Amino acid sequence: MAQTKIGLGILILVLVIGYASVFTVHETERAIKFRFGEIVRYDYEPGLHWKVPVPVWNAVKKFDARVLTLESKPERFLTSEKKNVIVDSFVKWRIEDVKRFYTTLAGNVRQANIRLDQVIKDELRSQFGKRTIHQVVSTDRDIIRQLLLKATIPIADKLGIEIFDIRIKRIDLPSQVSSSVYARMRSERERVAREFRSEGKEAAERIEAEADRQREVIVAEAQREADKLRGEGDAVATEVYAKAHDKNREFFSFYRSLNAYKKTFAQPGDMIVLDPTSDFFRYFKREQPPR
To answer: Which of 17, 47, 64 corresponds to the end of one domain?
Structure first.
């Protein structure tokens, strides 16, 4: 019985020592092994690893190797116009060199965020101070991002950190600046609108004048053509009248008189006062037409 207890105790001791001698490094972790507080290994691959089960002799410290996000608090920066803008940004980073990260920052993620935040804000202050509000809001955001990466990556590398991305999430203006910018933008838009309206009115007047000119030309040409055709028609009619007159002058005179009578007495009640012996009524005086 005593031997069984001793064997069981030895088994439990072996299991405890075995458990204390093994540690696991996951894919999302970086690990450092210390010996008497000195780093002896830091290049562990994911998997199962061994150590001496004595805390003073071998100690293992693990760090999160996933991509972390530093979200900076909104900060005020001055533009080249001496206008305040409120900038909200974030950084994506992870631990790349765990040994360097531990020796420079004591493996403290909070300290890493503070250092990165300070570097990025200093660079933002420098870049915004060289640009106008319009540039930082509309045209130069990607340029500023590239410059932030260029300035931050070397510093982060010295800390054992890899920078994945730096983004400016939002750029706001203080309320008084927003009102001023809005008023200026509105004034500029109104000026552009007035220019467009003026140009449109000028174009409309030009088109209208050109249309009037073309209309006058078309009407004049049509009138000229009508006068020409009318003249040709009158000439043909005169020729026909002349030929008809030459064939039977008395009949032609009679026909013309009938047309004159018809036009003179076109409406009921039409009246004309003439001397009965007038030549106008000469065909009313004859009982027989001349032979």
So the answer is: 64
